Hints:
globular
Amino acid sequence: MELIESTVCFGGKNAVYRHPSDACGCDMTFGIYLPPQAETTSVPVLWYLSGLTCTHENAMSKAGLQKFAAKRGLALVFPDTSLRGEGVADDEAYDLGQGAGFYVNATQKPWAPHFRMYDYVARELFYKVCSSFPVTEKHGITGHSMGGHGALTLAIHNPAQYQSVSAFAPIANPTESDWGRKQLEAYLGGDQARWANYDASLLLCRTGWERDILVDQGNDDQFYELLRPGTLTEATRSSGVALTYREHE
Amino acid sequence: MELIESTVCFGGKNAVYRHPSDACGCDMTFGIYLPPQAETTSVPVLWYLSGLTCTHENAMSKAGLQKFAAKRGLALVFPDTSLRGEGVADDEAYDLGQGAGFYVNATQKPWAPHFRMYDYVARELFYKVCSSFPVTEKHGITGHSMGGHGALTLAIHNPAQYQSVSAFAPIANPTESDWGRKQLEAYLGGDQARWANYDASLLLCRTGWERDILVDQGNDDQFYELLRPGTLTEATRSSGVALTYREHE
């Protein structure tokens, strides 16, 4: 791993690393915040998955999360949202290809075999973070929009790996949304049974989730109809999952 | 003024406005945060001036300042750093022209007569904010890098208007820096006596400042040599101005 940026932040350290990724077949970039406590002990980790068009820099620069993390002794990991670079497949639309990996393992060309953001975040980068930094086995995952979708689906598939999950305005039911149907077809092909593996609402009905989930949603969100929070709340109700759903101005 | 964006933030409101500017001869955009207290009373204002390449969106999105402002009942104003648009003069360099107004009134073409960011921020937008929003006469001003330069110079010229001033890593002595000499010559011409009006260190020696100043500076800042904090601390010492200078990792 190559350290490409490092700054002091609330007594801890914001760092950006670049590394060759086996999952993606190209170099990937991620950010990590290590709180001051990490100098003397191992700390739990909160993963933050960003949304469409974002890079690792998004929440790292904007969320103001480091102050909280420094107080609570929490490491933060900010993965990128897709592969990037001149040799990497892309689409003219902002919501497909680079900046829009949707946290899936693509099976269709030109996205396969390298658009494997599910494997990258949940396997390769997870292992890399655990083996390279002073972190415990306690990991939580969160994100917003496409990243909220990623957080929910990664957690539901890996309940032993992620002990907590939450999301801001997640794409909650992509198989029934214009933020999802196009991308899932492009990445996975026409068989909608495969899409269901990447739909939090469908996964909750199928697999459940034994702990609670926190979702925060603005009631005047311009993308409300694309996010489909109602389907998620209905899925948790019918599957008996404890959802704290905060919808507010 | 046209409201082009509005979101709820810590119980208050983040809003972005566009308006025709007489000072600049084009439309200008600024952000404002009104804390919850502004619904029932007038509130003091903190102006945040951003640095090179930034827009109004920079500190509004990244600084995490709204939580503090909501607690203390403080409005925040985020001006843009220059004129913008297709019909606006520009330079290929990132540090001249659009995104790099340096908070001066240009006298040289092609920047004159419209690059008047000093008049825009300290006069036109100041008046617009005071007449359009529930604010008191208590205004403070701050900023970073080029915006720290702007905050210091605007305050020193207008001590009755700005009751407090502070800066993160300000360009503290632009007449002796590569972040300054090129721009001051382009905007003001070769007469260096005119440049001194826009140099915080020189202004402090000439005019002084009756209250205190707070400056925060990283000791490993990659632009440390361009910012010249030593000249500012020396100027405050020789002019008897109370500077709290925090230099840290």
